[in-house]
Design a protein that fits this description.
The chain has 192 residues and is mainly α. It has helices at residues 2-27, 32-171, 174-191. The chain has a domain at 151-191. Helix 1 (2-27) crosses helix 2.
Length: 192
């Protein structure tokens, strides 16, 4: 602090002296004693002012800068600690992220395998269902064919009977009818 104030005072004195020399040369060297007196008073006033400020503020400035130095040192130490903690957390999170990525890949593969298995199962179930539907359809077709065949047979029999009746009605006479009745009675009576 003392060195800084001394340096500032010396620079000021040199600047003032240089100003006086230039001013004296500009006036042609007249009244240089008055200028030197003025310069001396100004320099004395400046030195007194600087000395007074030093006496008044030196301890506070020193305390401020030394306290600031301690604060900066503590801040740097804390920053180093926080950096170390942050790097540690970064490594931890990086490891966790890597593990999570591996787990995700594993889960993806497992889901993919399950999907393939489920797809095969669905295809097998669909094939079984299709086969059963074909069998059911074949059985229904067969039943419908039997039913249609029986209906056709029944209709054919019915038509045959009607046709036979028509033929018999046209070809049988009353005498033929009596002979058939007599024949039927004889057969029924004889059997009983």
């Amino acid at each position: 602090m003392k060195k800084t104030i001394s340096s500032i005072a010396a620079i000021f004195v040199l600047l003032v002296a240089a100003g006086v020399v230039f001013a004296a040369e500009a006036e042609g060297g007249h009244n240089s004693t008055e200028l030197l007196k003025g310069l001396g008073l100004k320099t004395f006033n400046f030195v007194v002012l600087v000395g007074f400020l030093y006496w008044l503020l030196a301890s506070k400035i020193k305390d401020f800068f030394s306290g600031r130095r301690v604060e900066i040192k503590e801040s740097l130490e804390k920053a180093v600690e926080r950096k170390a903690e942050a790097e540690k957390k970064y490594r931890e999170y990086s490891e966790k992220l890597d593990k999570a990525s591996l787990e995700i890949d594993g889960i993806f593969e497992m889901i993919k395998a399950q999907g393939i298995t489920e797809k095969q199962k669905i295809i097998e179930d669909a094939e079984k269902t299709a086969k059963k539907m074909k069998e059911d359809a074949s059985a229904r077709i067969e039943q419908e064919m039997k039913k249609a065949t029986e209906q056709l047979k029944a209709q054919a029999v019915e038509l045959s009977v009607k046709m036979a009746e028509e033929i018999l009605k046209r070809s049988i006479t009353k005498d033929d009818h009596k002979a058939m009745v007599q024949d039927y009675i004889n057969k029924v009576v004889i059997r009983n």
